[in-house]
Amino acid sequence: MLAKPSKKSMQTMLQEELCSSRGPLSGKTIRKIDPVPGGCIHQAWRLEMKDGLQLFVKASTPDAFPILNFEAIGLKILK
Predict the structure, then answer these.
(1) The pTM is what?
(2) Do residues 24 and 36 touch, judged by C-beta distance below 8 A?
C-alpha cells in the first residue's frame, strides 16, 4: 500500500514501494513517472522503467481497495 504523499517525491515513494525486495517490480528501476489525469477516486501514473518497459500504476486509500480489485477483475475478463 502506498503511503499518503509526504515530503518525499512520488518517484521516490513508487520506487521504494514497487521496486523494493518485497515489491512486484523487485530489482527494477523507474526512469520516469508521468501523472495520468482524469481519475476522481484514485491517483494514476505512467511509469517508464530503466529497461524501457512502460506500466500504468493506480493507487488509492485502503478503503477504496475493493474498487481497485473490481477494476482488476474487469480487466482480466477483457483480456
Answers:
(1) 0.69
(2) no
